[in-house]
Design a protein that fits this description.
- It contains nine helices and seven strands; from the N terminus they run ββααββααβαββαααα.
- With about 270 residues, the chain is of the alpha+beta class.
- It has two domains: about 180 residues, Beta-Lactamase (2-Layer Sandwich); about 55 residues, Arc Repressor Mutant, subunit A, CATH 1.10.10.
- Strand 3 and strand 4 form a beta hairpin.
- The protein is globular.
Length: about 270
């Protein structure tokens, strides 16, 4: 295929190494990073992105309800670049909109996050995300950081419709999928030009770019810090029960003013 992947022996010290071939309960085979990449390459060509294919394969292998992959930039903005299906997209976009959740925590803290049941003891941790995720049919959540050495790339979110968590063997497999996700992200960008993102990454990032633009616009117009402007956008989206992207579009188009001190154009 010609992709330059960060494979087993080339992975940085903080990237999970290839654990070899494992077996899970129920005769469920767990593949190595190389085998995961071979599998999703074999399924490519039909218009589905490699990040989506990896999430689908991970969900099927671990028998999960949903799996999502996100990228996080240095400013902390998240973009969903891969999802096993509609539920995964919704749950990951929800976290991007409200700024909280397992994938957010895993990416920011560079550590795995596990919560067995969102209906128990999750309100203080994720007061907005938890009830919304439960309403979407999610109970058990896990998230793994995606990183190369000290560089944070994003996260891999794992979701199930029933309470519980991965056992030790499944956790090892999830780590292998996280390493494969890093390989996919690095490989895709390795195929792009020095000044542009690979189309599989550029398209989802362009979708949420309007949020970054609206944050900057509101910061200038209302004399707010960038973090305060983003919080204001999120608060309005939550109060109106609207996607953050839609609120951002309205702010940029002038249809919505979110702050009484927002300055009029000269």
């Amino acid at each position: 295929m010609g992709f330059r992947y960060l494979l087993d022996g080339d992975a940085g010290p903080d990237v999970a190494p290839d654990p070899g071939l494992l077996l899970l309960p129920g005769d469920m085979n767990v593949t190595t990073v190389t085998q995961i990449l071979a599998t999703i390459h074999g399924q490519s060509g039909g218009g589905t992105s490699l990040p989506d294919l990896l999430c689908m394969d991970c969900a099927q292998t671990l028998r999960l309800t949903a799996v999502g992959m996100t990228l996080t930039n240095t400013a902390g903005h998240r973009t969903v670049v891969g999802a096993s299906g509609l539920i995964a997209s919704r749950v990951e976009e929800l976290q991007s909109d409200v700024g909280e959740g397992p994938s957010v925590d895993a990416s920011l803290a560079s550590r795995s996050v596990i919560h067995d049941d969102l209906m128990i003891d999750s309100g203080a941790r994720w007061p907005i995300f938890a009830p919304a995720a439960v309403a979407a049919g999610i109970r058990g959540v896990s998230a793994l950081p995606l990183r190369v050495g000290g560089v944070r790339l994003g996260s891999l979110g794992l979701y199930r419709s029933s309470p519980g968590h991965l056992d030790d063997a499944q956790s090892d497999t999830a780590e292998t999928y996280a390493a494969a996700a890093v390989a996919v992200l690095v490989g895709l960008q390795g195929e792009a030009t020095e000044t542009a993102l690979h189309p599989d990454l550029a398209a989802p990032m362009a979708y949420r770019a309007v949020i970054h633009q609206a944050t900057g616009f509101l910061s200038v117009k209302a004399s707010l810090e960038m973090s305060e402007a983003l919080l204001l956008l999120r608060a309005n989206a939550f109060a109106a029960d609207r996607p953050l992207v839609d609120v951002a579009h309205d702010v940029l188009s002038g249809q919505l003013r979110l702050h009484p001190e927002e300055k009029e154009d000269d």
